[in-house]
Design a protein that fits this description.
single chain, 360 residues, alpha/beta, eight-stranded mixed sheet, 9 helices, 28% helix, 25% strand
């Protein structure tokens, strides 16, 4: 039985980047992943890297995470296109102005722009825009490349990876059983995304984690009409056009299912609402057939802030989960938790999971 300084349960962006930082600090680490690397939320999301849609308190984390993706560059299909967020009525315009003012104050390069200026840059957009903001840093990456990129980084760092290794037991002393093998570790990090609640329960810890079932769609290829990312003041739309002219459409519209049941299912009613909003923003989408829609699980707790720090009541156990916008923020917050394990003061404050201990 092999022994490690750190066992990371979960091979998404957060677990992998935490393992990389821990190894840099001298720890022997292994990553256990129930499917393949980045098979969960890290690999099935719309690839949006937008500061415009991040919560104000999380903006410093989003900006550091965004820099990680920018440095990854072509390996992950990173494109910094800039992004517009649109409002179509007075209520949405007020909401947009208030939210973007706070985000700009938090450091995001966001400015309000006139509808005429938006239309001059993006003539394919609706002529019913009444207000808009622009963030020059916004862009996207290709989430389908995430797993391969993380695998290459982990291999280069000499970090072992066990894929298709769902954890079914954690015995005292952190003897972790997965894929008919037992792995022993001095410390453990649970970074299992939507499956985090079940893994923590193996250590006797109850967490108030719920799961969203977000829907993403892609259309057939066609003429390239958009150069920028597009969002909506409500946060219910992310829209971008890829190099081959296909549109990638998201926005957090909900499907059905749960992690315990396996992959989620697309719900027709919410899918249609998502597509209608996309068509309202970009009328040309009406002529593009949707060729695939899918779902991905996104875990969250009642206050919608991350769980990042020591696992309550279990010495040498740590937790990293429920990071909304984790595709952008993950490469920042993963290393921060690793620094806590290494005895280093993290560069940004963490989010103590113990705040839910009484309610769990």
């Amino acid at each position: 039985m092999s022994s490690y300084d750190l066992i990371v349960i979960g091979g998404g962006i957060m677990g992998a980047t935490a393992a990389l930082r821990a190894a840099q600090g001298g720890m022997r680490a292994i990553v256990l992943e129930r499917e393949s690397l980045a098979a969960g939320a890290s690999g099935v999301n719309a690839g949006t890297l937008s500061l415009s849609i991040k919560r104000v308190r999380l903006m410093p984390y989003a900006m550091r995470g965004h820099a990680w993706w920018r440095a990854a560059g072509d390996a992950v299909g990173f494109k910094q296109t800039g992004g517009y967020t649109l409002a179509f009525n007075a209520r949405e315009a007020q909401l947009l102005e208030e939210r973007m003012a706070m985000k700009a104050e938090a450091g995001a390069p966001i400015e309000m722009v006139s509808p005429a200026a938006v239309r001059a840059r993006e003539p394919a957009l609706s002529d019913r825009i009444v207000a808009a903001s622009f963030c020059a840093a916004d862009g996207h990456a290709d989430s389908t490349r995430t797993g391969a990129y993380l695998r290459a980084l982990l291999r280069e760092a000499g970090i072992e990876v066990a894929e298709h290794a769902a954890v079914d037991a954690i015995e005292p002393g952190f003897r972790v059983r997965a894929r008919d093998k037992t792995f022993a570790g001095k410390r453990i990090l649970i970074a299992a995304g939507a499956w985090t609640r079940g893994v923590a329960a193996l250590l006797g810890v109850a967490l108030p984690i719920d799961v969203n079932v977000n829907t993403v769609s892609v259309t057939e290829a066609g003429p390239v009409r958009l150069s920028s990312g597009i969002g909506h003041a409500t946060g219910l739309l992310t829209l971008k056009q890829k190099g081959n002219g296909s549109y990638l459409i998201g926005g957090g519209w909900q499907g059905r299912g749960s992690p315990e049941q396996g992959r989620g299912e697309v719900a027709t009613d919410t899918l249609l609402q998502n597509l209608q909003l996309a068509r309202y923003a970009v009328p040309a989408i009406a002529h593009a057939r949707v060729i695939r829609s899918w779902t991905g699980f996104e875990a969250h707790v009642p206050d919608y802030y991350p769980l990042a720090g020591a696992l309550p009541g279990v010495a040498d156990a740590y937790l990293l989960a429920c990071v909304r916008g984790g595709y952008t923020i993950g490469p920042c917050i993963g290393p921060l938790v690793a620094e806590l394990m290494l005895g280093i003061e993290p560069a940004l404050p963490l989010f103590d999971p113990a705040r839910f201990a009484a309610a769990a």
